[in-house]
Amino acid sequence: MTQVIGGFAALDLHPNILAAVIATGYEEPSAIQLQAIPVILAGHDMIGQAQTGTGKTAAFALPILSRIDPTKRQPQALILAPTRELALQVATAFETYAKQMPGLNVIAVYGGAPMGPQLKAIRNGAQVVVATPGRLVDHLRRDEKVLSTIQHLVLDEADEMLKLGFMDDLEVIFKAMPETRQTVLFSATLPHSIRTIAEKHLREPKHVRIETKTQTVTAIEQAHLLVHADQKHAAVLRLLEVEEFDALIAFVRTKQATLDLAAVLEARGYKAAALNGDIAQNQRERVIESLKDGRLDIVVATDVAARGLDVPRITHVMNVDMPYDPESYVHRIGRTGRAGRTGRALLLVTPRERRMLQVIERVTGQKVSEVRLPDGQQVLDARIKKLTSSLAPLVADAEASHGELLDRLTAEIGCSPRALAAALLRKATNGQALTLAEVEREQPLVPTSAPRERSERSSERSDRGDSRERRAPVPLAEGRARCRTALGARDGIAAKNLLGAILNEGGLVREAIGRIQVRESFSLVELPEDGLERLLSKLKDTRVGGKPLKLRRYRED
Ligand code: AMP
């Protein structure tokens, strides 16, 4: 699909950056990328109003990487992010897009890790520095020249940085950079404080935001489910069990994701196929025909590949990955509810994408109600309901045709009709889990977070260089209170999820939060004693992984 690759190709990115983008599997630029990339490439200062999920990271990473000179071994671009998690995420994105740029190095600089190696990497000529403001200021105290060669500065999630109290640090950082630098500011909201920063530190900035015209969607019932990124496949499988769909289209962002999800669904026995920009036209037509006539029930597609797809059988649209903008959302869900029928649209939302959900609600003027992940009992009930409805029509005349055979078989085997019926059911259901215990064993919710969480915690400890801590119990540090939530590993929670939620919604700095212990059915978090009641009331409506956090002071006795 050359005209699609043309989407990125027309943007004038450095050829090696373009090659990496194509290798990543992106099919076309998102709305914010289309608008921001030319502005940043042209060297303008810019204010971008965009939230997570719009593709904003690539919107600044791609043009900035295109303008960096990898032969110069000195810091050229600085990206400031409010939290360690976001800094790491942005650094990883830069690394991905710079894969085909030999000599280009990226360093993430954040608190909680030793300073020495970070400073060394900067001095050794990492051209891109991604940092949290607090830690960067610590570095500036050691070496005030460390930012003297920066030509591009990005403030990512500027509103969040101010909420976390980084205003003073930002001022120190601005002063340490050449005035001739380009400055790009991204923020989901533009409160007065952000506008003040922009007036003071940006030069004739261009404004970029996604147009959010009101869109109408009718006859489509919309719902969302909060889920962590690494649980999406498990969540999709559960939803599919309870949703009564005829045909369904699942939207993801990359070609690879279409293949991965289609493979997972096929392995579960669904008639599913992938549809992406790499699939040849005749094969694409075959997939659509199969969806029309029922040889396929699920198609996993990218936005590009699903363009123009019109199959009246589609009763459900599942947005497995968030669309880049409300307009694509409206487009996607318009694949259902055709020919006057009602359709259902489901949207998986990761905690960081909640703002995007609000934008969608505002633009469509409709509430996208929340659904919870079906539990084992609901999955079981749905399976039994399906079994009932497949067997019920067979019962009516079965006795007349097979009654005698039944008598003979029970006599020959020497068993009751009930025993024989049970044996036939076992055969017919082909090993499917049909008791609660079996269903729960079959659908473990978080296949990936347990080992990751362990390594995260152990690395946190080794940062502090205290290997004795490895075996709890750990004494509580002075000034800290231990709090408990009923969310644990079995809810799919990892330490980083709790940390992210508390940082973002509690307005704390990373250093204020102590140890986080995630157990099977609960978790413990160390928080500052000072102001604890206020903090807990601030967090009273916070949800993690779609469930209420309900953090309470924990008394061990
Ligand atoms: P962001 O809004 O920057 O947090 O990006 C959200 C996600 O979208 C990330 O996982 C990116 O890898 C992905 N992404 C960004 N741009 C594109 C694109 N043009 N096509 C497909 N995926 C993209």
What does this entry look like structurally?
With 557 residues, the protein is of the alpha/beta class. It folds into three domains: 7-209, P-loop containing nucleotide triphosphate hydrolases (Rossmann fold, 3-Layer(aba) Sandwich), CATH 3.40.50.300; 220-376, Rossmann fold (3-Layer(aba) Sandwich), CATH 3.40.50.300; 450-553, 2-Layer Sandwich (Alpha-Beta Plaits), CATH 3.30.70.330. It is 45% helix and 15% strand. It has 21 helices and 20 strands. The strands form four sheets. The protein has a seven-stranded parallel beta sheet with strand order 3-4-2-5-6-1-7, with helices on both faces. Strands 10-11-9-12-13-8-14 form a seven-stranded parallel beta sheet. The protein has a four-stranded antiparallel beta sheet with strand order 16-17-15-20, covered by helices on one side. Helix 6 links the parallel strand 3 (106-109) and strand 4 (128-131). Helix 4 packs across helix 5 (84-97) and helix 16 (376-413) packs across helix 18. Bound molecules: adenosine monophosphate. Adenosine monophosphate binds at residues 26, 29-30, 33, 52-58, 253-254.
